[in-house]
Write a structure and sequence with these properties.
20% of the residues lie in helices and 25% in strands. It is of the alpha+beta class and 186 residues long.
Length: 186
């Protein structure tokens, strides 16, 4: 279950800059179905054969606004390697309730399904976050912690709820200026 390439809105669409609304709890069947489809889309996008056949850009996360729905729903699937379990999240109304002072960034910069043009530069994010959300897989309210790459991914997706894109965080004067005391993620 995935979205067609033309269903994913681009950063040229004004909708991507709109604020997403929290969803009502208990979760409606429609909202739960959308959250699970967002997760499914990301998982399908990571299958090289399927992504090529269906013209799906590989991703680790997607927010509902990226398919034109202004609701605080997202799906994330982060492959963690052979000795760790993958992180799979289908969340409603996620909120960062605390974050580290220490920053982190991806050495190669960030990308986004809704952004086709190159936007080079470091994107500073909190190295560690604590999140409260409604888990659409477990059907319950949860609080959890993430650090490093998974924390960056979730912050990227949560930014979409405020109409913020990753390149809004890039230093416009010196995009590759190192961020003092930050963790650099390869």
């Amino acid at each position: 279950m995935f979205f067609k390439a033309e269903e994913i809105i681009k950063d040229s669409d004004h909708l991507i800059r709109e604020k997403s609304k929290p969803v009502e709890l208990p979760l409606s069947e429609e909202d739960k179905k959308l959250a699970l489809k967002l997760l499914s889309h990301v998982k399908c996008s990571q299958d090289p054969e399927l992504s090529e056949k269906e013209n799906i850009r590989p991703a680790v996360g997607i927010a509902a606004v990226q398919v034109g729905v202004l609701k605080q729903l997202l799906g994330v699937c982060i492959p963690m390697g052979e000795d760790k379990e993958d992180i799979e999240l289908a969340l409603a109304n996620p909120k960062i309730i605390s974050n580290s002072v220490q920053m982190a960034y991806l050495k190669e910069g960030e990308g986004c399904l809704s952004v086709e043009d190159e936007h080079a530069g470091y994107v500073p994010r909190s190295a560690r976050i604590r999140v409260r959300a409604y888990d659409c897989i477990q059907d319950k309210e949860v609080i959890f912690r993430l650090s490093g790459y998974p924390a960056i991914v979730l912050q990227h997706e949560i930014d979409h709820f405020s109409g913020i894109l990753f390149y809004d965080h890039i230093n416009p004067v010196n995009p590759w200026q190192p961020i003092e005391d930050a963790i650099v993620i390869e």
